Structures are given as structure tokens and as C-alpha cells.
Amino acid sequence: MELLWILLFSSVYPLTGGQGVYAPANAQIVHSGEACNVKDDNISERIYTIKEGDTLVLQCIVKGHPRPQVRWTKTAGSASDKFQEKPIFNETLRIESIKRIKGGRYYCKADNGVGVAAIKSIRVDVQYLDVPVLTVHQTISDVRGSYYQEKTVFLRCTVNSNPPARFTWKRGNMLIEQSKDNGVDIYEPLYTQGETKVLKLKNLRPRDFANYTCQVSVRNVCNIEDKSITFSLTNATSPPMIRLSVNDTVVVDPGQDVLLNCEVTAGFPPPTVLWSLYSRSLPLSAQVRGPTLILRAVTLDDAGVYNCTAVNNVGNPARKIVNLVVRTMSNLTFQITPDSNKDSETIQMGRDLKLSCHVDATPQDKVNYTWYKNGAPVFNSESLILLRSDPDMAPGTSSLEIVDMKFRDLATYSCVANFPGSRVLELRVDVNVSQNSVSPPVLSVPPGGQVVSVREGGNVELVCLVVDGKPRPPILWSRAEKDLLMPSGTATTETPDGRLRLKNVSRDMMGAYRCQTAPYNGLNIKRRELQVQLNVQFPPILDPVFQDARWRNSQMVTLRCNILRSNPPRLTDIRWFRNGDFIRMPTADLKEIPELKFKLEPTNNGSYECRVSNNAGTSTCTFNVSAQPYNAEFYFDTPNPVRIQKGNNYSYNLQWTQKDPEATDRIIGYWINVRKNKQNVLWKQIDLKGKEPEQGVLISHTISDLKIPLSYEVRLSPITTYSTGDFVSRIIQYSEPYTYPRPSDHVCGFENERICGFSQDRSDIFDWTRQNHLTRNPKRSANTGPETDRSGSKEGYYMYIETSFPRVQGDKARLLSPLFNVSSVRGPKGSGRVPYCVSFYYHMKGKHIGTLNVLLRVRSIASVDSVVWMKSGHQGPEWRKAFFDISPSGPFQIVFEGIRGPSFEGDIAIDDVSITIGKCKQENTAASAGECCV
């Protein structure tokens, strides 16, 4: 008998009661990806197990009104190092080809601004098994020799896996068992990275020279296959040894070609040679040819520590390193240091003087300095002392000390820096030493330059000049406030002419800047120092920048624009505009908070701007002022929105609330627009018939004549006397509607193609089939399945599972009942739950019968299944009746789950299903309680 659905209403009405339907967010995480297993028994530690490379799909099912917004985040877990996921704002989290580093705890946060946000979590455990690595080692005393008899050898097998792997050792094709071979020992070492098992061969015997296989397994978890690796142990097995064709450090000029050869001198099996560069990848121009690394036309970027590694999985890898240094030389500077013992700042006859020379170079210790006096080389003497490396100066600094200066020492001194034998160009600096050519510097800020003002976003120049002194050193700029960096991000900025140029100035650059004489390229004396104040001017900072302001028409409106900061603080102008047109009003008091008051009318709705100016510019407060109603808020938690109509149609009970209905003019109705593929299906006005929306109270409208199983876009806009609100949209989808179990018997015999609203589960392996005696497959499996329906009629239909090929053992088929609503039914006095009787007939004939389960699926935020009845194996050739009571806590479905047995003679059938209110009536039969047969 077909279930008959009756359309109860088609009008619009508000649902009143309590504080309305506004409710805080509620959430639950469900999964629909390629999970191997999900443990839901412990609520505080839900674990989602998935194979590496599969697709992770987690859905955060939410309830609450208004519709909560969902945010996914992840914290570190196994195989993760840090909090690394960016938030994902979507109800469904999908990760294609998941990697092990994605394992960890995932959090779903649902928030709708009502009450406290809901947070749920689930731990994702990514399962994987790498190919193992097998290495061979000897005892420490034996490492210099070959692997020959009467030596102890260790075969170490290491693997990365989750869950922990199980190890199996084989010699040839024979399993190695420690209890049956006194010459071996198998154990797990301490302090190893990854999972490791060691096979110890004690005092090698001739039969120990063989092929050894290490096989690892995670016991087919997530269908992960076993992995293995094999090593051939012979009396020639030996660890690798290498030698380099160059010294440990190689120094070259830019542009030279470099050839590094890593020769293998020992090792069996033949080692593999690998070249790498410390902390980064090899240069793009590098060529690796076997054990040789070739670098063409090297640059400064090619410098670094190169590592040659030879590996054959015997002993430890052999390693050699080469430090490649590319010569560079730049920034040659000088210093003139008067006699420090006399606290002098000038050159004076009869006192000492030191000239210093420094160049930035690589390698620094290979730089050669040569001093000249008037073009002639300087050699050590009683009056001229050469210091190759001056201990009083920065490392790599050469100095020339002039002792007890005489008139003959007044000259031009030159310092030349070079790399002997290198093509790198030498650098030279000349210093003229005379009584007139050397004097202390004098710093000065030009008049008016002590405070410099600039508009934000502009360019500015801070000036600090050396107006006197020889030679004139460069100027170093820094921020006067401690710990503040220069706009360039460095602590200091050098300017050769004392002019600091700043571009695109921002307000955070404002403050005091210190200018100092540099200690080089001039006199090495106490630094001269001054300060310049940078004043960055910016337009007023206002609040609010934008506000959506809604009132009723004829209501007095006050717009207020608050001034938070301004530089300069003095305002120059305040003006109000409506829709871009200036509003004439009395001159504003520039010391008061700008306000605009007016009576709202349909003619003066629009965009209002308050423009506040100072000498740096103008800022704006914008107010969108209107009597336009706020948006409607769709209600997504309607318990039973779908009703089935004639002609394969359905209706949908659309529900919503009105946001802040008292804020604007009275809402008299709504425009509703239903679309499919952007084509209008329905466009009409909903009349509220004088009933005004109330805050938090549901409004309903039934949309009819929708086609099963199509989904539609619904757009809704509120209407007032003077205006229409903005449209909001949502998708409505067809779903099997609730039905209401009745006290009287109602039996579904599957006689109609609609099968009483039952449906196939999309997540199972195969489907239940509707058939009768006349529609059976003539090539069906013999000795299984019913000949007639439960009543004995050959024309009567029933549902069954076909277990012939391609079905395999364990395949499941699930048939879902309609969704039954229990929220409107009260249980017996003193009880909160209503009892229901579920009865049906089943047929389980055949030597390969599997299992028939009946599950109760209760709907809350997510569905929860529990087994309420089960039967396995051959039950005879007749139809048998089963019945049992349930007391669900909410809307529910009954699920019939058929599981295929070991072979094809295992068809299972059901018929005459009924679900009624009240407990089952006990039948007086010879069968056991809850069953009878026909």
C-alpha cells in the first residue's frame, strides 16, 4: 500500500512562542570521505583513520538561527610540527590526496553571534607504510676489515609507518626464527629514529652468506600492502671509502670553473655517490657526472660547503666536505687616528699619528695590504711602523703608525688592497696628511631643518651636513628612540652627503632621527651628533568609516562623526553631503563633534558623507541612511519541510525570520523568486495580510509543484510601504519527508514502484531489488530466495538482495524507511519517549545466507545508527515474522541491511513491513518471542 501524503496548508503564517527561534550554534562532525575506520565510541577522542593518498572529507553539520558560520582549523598531531592550517570557512573540509603531515586534530567552530560558539573536534590519523631501509654493520673493532667468517654482523631494518609495523626476517625464502637458530638474535635497539629491528648474525657461518629480506607489515590496515627490501651478504661486503681530488678548502676567483672529484676507493656493493650543498640545493648551473661535480663560471652565490656522500648501506656512509670560497673585495675605507695618549683631535708635530685601512673581503685573512708614501713603498723604520693586522681595530685592518711626526712625514699616503695572484681587481685609497688637510668635522642642520613636516604618502629629505672639517666623513642615520629600526629595516643608514631621503612616508616613521659622523673615511675621534624631528601629517581619523543606518520614515535621525586623531590637530573644514550634493547648513563649530540631524522622509534616503579636513587632507564618515528593511533570515532547521504531491511533485515549507523588523517601516509582505538553472519558476508577492513580523518569530510559506528530485534557488526580499529590501537566497533540496506512524496497522507490501517511500542508501555497496514470481530472472540462483511474496501470491512483490556475481562476501545493501517524526507525539505519563512496534517478514533460505540486520537511525544534528535486530544463516524455506519495540529519542528511520554470505546461494528477502505507535502485541505462537513463521 502506497503512503499518501496530504498537503496541509499553503498559506503564510507566523509561528509564535517563547523568545523566538534565535538559538546559539550547535555542531557535530560527520565524515563521508575514504575513511578506513572511525571510532565514535569515545566522544572526547573521535579518531578518523585514513590511508595516505586518499581523500579526506569532514562535514560540520550545524544547527542554530541565524545560520552559523563554520570555520575549520587544525593543530599539530602525529607527523605534524606546528599549527599550520589556514582557517577554512566552509561547512565541508576536503583534502585531496592527504599526506601524513596533515594528520592531527581538526576543529570545527560554528558561530552565529547568539550565545557561545560551538566547537567540535576529531583527530585524523593518517596511515602509511614506507619502503624499509636495510643497512649492514659490524662491531666497532671490526670496521676496518671485510665481512668474513668469525665476525659478528648486524642487519638493521628501519621503516617509517603508522601504525607501528611488524617485522619479518628471511634468509633466502626461509623464515628466520630466533628460537630455532642459535646463530641469530633479533631485537629492537634503543634510541633509534623510526621503527627498527636488528638481525644479529653471531660469528658468521658459511650459510650466513646469503640473501636477507626484511619484510614490514601493518597487517593490511587501510588495505596497505606489505613492503620488503633484500640485501645480499657476501664475504666481499665492505663499507664505502672515498677521497677528494682537492683540499678541504678551495679558493677561486669569480668566473672560474671548478671541478670536484669524489673518488670511491673501497666498498661492496659498489657505493652510490651523492653531492649536496649545505642548507640549500645545488646551483642550477651545477653538473653532476657520477662522482664528479662541475661548477661553471662560479659566482658569489655558488660559495658554500659542498658535501660528497658515498652510500652502499654497509656501515656508515662515507662523507667528505669541501668549503668553496669565491674571492670578493669591496668597500675600502680609511681612518686617521690622532695621538690617543694626548687626547688630541688634530694633527700636531711631535705627536704620533695612525693611518688605518680596511677592506671587506672574502677570504679576509688572504688580503694583502701595501702602503705607499708619495708613490714610494713604505717599509718599517723607527718613524714608520707597519701593522699587518692592527689589534686595536676591526679584524683584517692594516695600519701605518707615524711616530713623533716631523715635517718630512707630511705627505700623501696610499693603501692598496689585493689578493696576490688573483684576477680580482685591487682597491686603492689615498690620504693627504698635512696641517691644512686634516681637521675635526663640524655638523650642522640647515635653518628650519630641525623639524621637517611632510604629508603621509609623500617624499621627504632630512639634511645633516658636515660644514667644516677635513676629510669629510659620511653620515650615519638612526632612530633616536631605542629599538626602532630605520625605514629600510636596518639599524643605521649611511649617506655620503648627509641627506636622508624617505619615500612614501607613513605615520609610523614619525619621530626623532639621529645623524652621526662615521668613524671611517675621516678622523677617528669622538663622533659628532645632531637630531632632526620628522613630523608626519595625516588627515583626521574618523569613526565610523561606514555605517548602515536604518530608521522608520518620519523619524528624527542623528548622524555623528567622531574624530579620533588628527595631525595637525586643528581642523580647517567640516561639510555634509547627501548623494554627493553639498548640504547647506550653518557654519560648523570646528571644535565640536560633527553632527547632522534631520527627519527621515522617502525623498531623503541615501548616502550621507561627513567630510572633515585639516591641512594634511580630508577624511570621510559615510552613512547609508534608509528606511529599507533588513534582510530576511532563512531558517534551516525546519524538521519536515517536504511534502509529496501528485504527479511526481513535492512542496517545500520555506521558513524565515525578519531581522530587526521594528527598525524600519512596517513590513507588509515579501517578494519570492524561485529559480532553476537561472530560469524563473515562480515570481510573486507574499501578502502578510496585516500580520507584522516579530523579532525571532518564524514566518512560513509553502512552495508547491516542485519536481522530484530537483533542487531550486529561492530568493526572498521584504516589502514595506515605501521600499523593498535586498534579496537573500538559499538552495532548497528534495529529501524523503517525515511520515507519522499511526496507531492502526499500516503494512507496506512494496506493491507500488514508490515502495512506500523507502529508498536505497547511497553509501552502501549494492541495492535491494523489488520483484515478484513473474519478474524473476530465469537464470537466477537455485536453492535460494522465495517463490512467492509473504501472502503466497505469485503476483505480490517483495524486496530482496541478489548475491550472485559480481557480489562478494561482506558486500552490504541498505534499504531506508521514510523519516518518521516523533516530536509531536507524547509518551506515556512519566515517560518522555513514545514506544513503536516494528514488524516485518523475512525469507532467508540457502546454504550461503549471510546476515540480515535491522538498524534504528535516529536523527539529531547527525544520524546515529544502532542495531536493534539481527539474524544470520539459513532459516528454512518459509517466510518468518519478526517484531520488536523501539523508543527513539527523535525523528528516526528503520534501516534493513543485507550482508552477502560466502557464496551465491544467499538471497535474503523482506515483505509486509509496518511501523505503528505503541508496543507490539505478543502473538501466541510456538515460535520464540519476537518471531513466527508462515
Broad structural category: mainly beta
Could you tell me the radius of gyration in angstroms? 44 Å
The average pLDDT value, as a whole number, equals 88
Distance between the termini: 21 Å
Q: What percent of residues adopt helix (DSSP H or I)?
A: under 10%
Report on the biggest sheet. 7 strands, antiparallel
Shape: flat
Strand content range:
over 45%
How many separate helices?
0
* Poorly predicted parts: 1-18, 77-85, 141-149, 924-929
Please count the beta strands (DSSP E, at least 2 residues each): 74
Structure description:
By secondary structure, the protein is mainly β. Strands 62, 64, 65, 68, 71, 73 and 74 form a seven-stranded antiparallel beta sheet that branches. Strands 3, 4, 6, 8, 9 and 12 form a six-stranded mixed beta sheet that branches. Strands 36, 39, 40, 42, 44 and 47 form a six-stranded mixed beta sheet that branches. It starts with 12 loop residues before the first strand and ends with a strand.
